[in-house]
Amino acid sequence: MADTHHPATAVTKAVVPAAGLGTRFLPATKATPKEMLPIVDKPAIQYVVEEAVAAGLDDVLMITGRSKRSIEDHFDRAYELEEALRVKNDTERLNAVRESSDLAQVHYVRQGEPRGLGHAVLCAAAHVGNEPFAVLLGDDLIGTRDALLKRMIDVRETYGGSVIALMEVEPEQVSLYGCAAISPTADHDVVTVTDLVEKPPADQAPSRWAVIGRYICDPAVFDVLGTTPPGRGGEIQLTDALRELAQRGPDNGGPVHGVLFRGQRYDTGNKIDYLRTVVEFACDRPDLAEEFLPWLRSFVAERDLGPA
Known about the structure:
Elements: E1 13-18, E2 38-39, E3 42-43, H1 44-54, E4 59-64, H2 69-74, H3 79-87, H4 91-102, E5 105-110, H5 117-122, H6 125-128, E6 133-136, E7 140-142, H7 148-159, E8 162-168, E9 178-184, E10 190-198, E11 209-217, H8 220-227, H9 238-246, E12 256-260, E13 265-267, H10 271-284, H11 286-305
Parallel strand pairs: 1-4, 1-6, 4-5, 8-12
Antiparallel strand pairs: 2-3, 6-11, 7-13, 8-11, 9-10, 10-12
Helix pairs in contact: 3-4, 8-9
């Protein structure tokens, strides 16, 4: 049965796990967190925080680890830099620098050791308390026009429990994701999640609907994560905890629903997709596209022709 919404259950906090080692981007990530790699001229993690703020979440908790200090610096004031830009009357860059520190109230907690996404979320328990909360993974950037997170918050207010974002992937890709078994609801873009399988072989996947990096979690997830044994890869998996909640009723932390997302998602978790994301973002920028697109077309045309 759908929950009736009241202010005590409003989602106001976002949790952004950012403690991963970023090994796929070495040596760039030896001293720079992967979350700080730029998409054109803005670090990936700023897009994620902007998405949370756009959905009405202005309390953001970063789960960080060793060598992530530059994330904290990025969302802090940079007085000397601001003063240098002010002296030069460089208002445009001054505003860009201030934007990140004015975005939201950003808090930090250290994970200590990277023991999986579930463990990272568990580190947020003291800050979040007994409230529903959003989890946004920095590897997934969602198109600003799609308002996925806001839709997920609305679904939580209607149905209660937890809500995950699901995206249809090709059969050969299902083994890269957590995969959901689903049944329809009265809403065309909302399903009930009956089971979740982490990275199944293609022939054992319950569907082609894969879990992507946006979640609205009921606070009951903390108790489940606290007793969830390490799963795949020896890590505590958020998928395993949500699978447990999917079996429960509304009085016990359940159920779990999925929002079927058909919008724009950018995966920055590997080099090829990261490069695609940078090019797409550059082509969408009015200040860059006019010069960049003609160059890109001629560059690709020359490559297609091959050596003379």
